[in-house]
Amino acid sequence: MEASFVATDCGAWRDAIDAGVAADVTRAIDQLAEFPVLDGTVQRILQLCDEPDATTADLVGALELDQAFAANLLRYANSAALARPIRAKTVRQAVMLVGRRALRRLSLEAATFRFLERAPGNGGTVRGQLHLHAVSVAVTSALAADMARVRGEAPHLAGLLHDIGKLVLPIAFGEEAIEEITSEHPSGQGRVDLERERLGIDHALAGALLAERWGCAPEVVEAIAFHHGGPTGIAVPTPETACVQLANGVADMLSGGEADHPLLEAALDRLGLDASALDRLAEAASTPLGAVASGRIGEQVADTSQLAQQDDLTGLANRRHWLQTVRGELSERGTGAVLVVTVGGLADVTRTHGYGAANLVLTEVARVVSRHGLAGRLGGVVLGVWLDGSADDAVAAGELIRAEVSAAERDGTPPVDLHMGVASAPADGDDLALLLEAADEASAKQRDTVRPLERRDDITVDRRAA
């Protein structure tokens, strides 16, 4: 087993995808229809909305050339279920009432709504809701962007498309496998972790691959890839991503899901907003899902005193407790190092020996990791270790972890691959989210050659980070 502890630029989401899994997903993507935004009518409307010299008559004319789309747009715009402030009898009235920016968004929403409503492969457990959730998150993402002064339409489009990976996974891995996952965890971080564990990929990354195929802008693709915070669970690479993360989190909470406090807090911090902003976002998100909020969302996020501190499976600190503790250490000391350990190969263990055996292997690795610093389970197969030392100390800890896990394998534990990455403060930043992103990027690129490297037995170290 090789490892390279390389902290490079963050955001290379593609590097987290196994080549074999990517091939399966690509074949599934080939079976999906083209995204409706590529439809001629929608493209023409978007073009006219962006042209300052285009007239209202031009917009009306483009809409009226496609009667089916115009009818769907009117029906959607007047839908009581979506509580839109539009009551129009003609396309011209709709254009006059909503203005160009709203018309642009309505066109995207109407086309996407229709596509998701009819699209195959969403899985019976959540079929019939994906289109509603998509519009809710899109509207809320746009509001978050307005509140944080994030320019452009990327948050709105990324919100519309953030869950399109859920169309891909059943085609790639079989609907039965996805039904098992959604029956255990219908949504949220739990579903993402289970997807990664059993499939080797989650719906966020699958959706990013599909959006990339559809020709979406890089900022939209990246927001889709990171809408659950990436492997560390708190990665917020761009303001556009933060908008989608907030919107998705609020929508999940309103539908009865558990709040992902660390990710919400990281996204709020990225946009310079406080928890009270979530209440305004909740008002925008609640109507499409017909949900009733249990108390004020801002207060729910702020009140974390009842949350557990231990991960049930591994016995390590859970993600929230580990992040909270490490942030305190980093704030007090200003120095230290993060070691991210991703346990690969558990999918093979599951196929050969079952889920129980894979859980036992992960627990054994966690036991080893816990001896080398402040350890926590960041999600799925990703473990984090905080060391009150330098990057070199973290590299040394990684060498010991690898040796001890190898010894356990000789004693009969099924083999696994450990992908490791290190980042240190202040060399790689003074913010925990940045350190985790850098360390995770390092582990994901262990097979890449980035610059001349210094060898230490079977571990390569990029001196920029260490």
CATH topology name of the largest domain, in short, is Hypothetical protein af1432
Instruction: Profile the largest sheet.
Output: 4 strands, antiparallel
Rg estimate, integer Å: 23 Å
Please state the overall shape, judged from the principal axes of the Cα atoms. elongated
The CATH fourth-level homologous superfamily of the largest domain: Hypothetical protein af1432
* CATH architecture heading of the largest domain: Orthogonal Bundle
Count every helix, treating DSSP H or I runs of 4 or more residues as helices. Answer: 21
Low-confidence stretches: 1-11, 121-128, 287-295, 303-307, 447-466
Structural class assignment: alpha+beta
What does this structure look like?
The protein is of the alpha+beta class and 466 residues long. It folds into 3 domains: 3-17 and 309-461, Alpha-Beta Plaits, CATH 3.30.70; 33-118, no CATH class; 124-306, Hypothetical protein af1432. Helices cover 57% and strands 8% of the residues. It has helices at residues 19-30, 40-50, 56-64, 67-77, 91-118, 130-148, 154-161, 165-173, 175-184, 188-199, 203-213, 218-225, 239-254, 261-271, 277-289, 297-302, 319-333, 346-353, 355-369, 391-410, 432-444; strands spanning 3-5, 336-344, 374-379, 382-387, 417-425, 454-456, 459-461. The protein has a 4-stranded antiparallel beta sheet, sandwiched between helices. The chain has a 3-stranded mixed beta sheet with strand order 1-7-6. It is elongated, with a radius of gyration of 23 Å. The two termini are 21 Å apart.
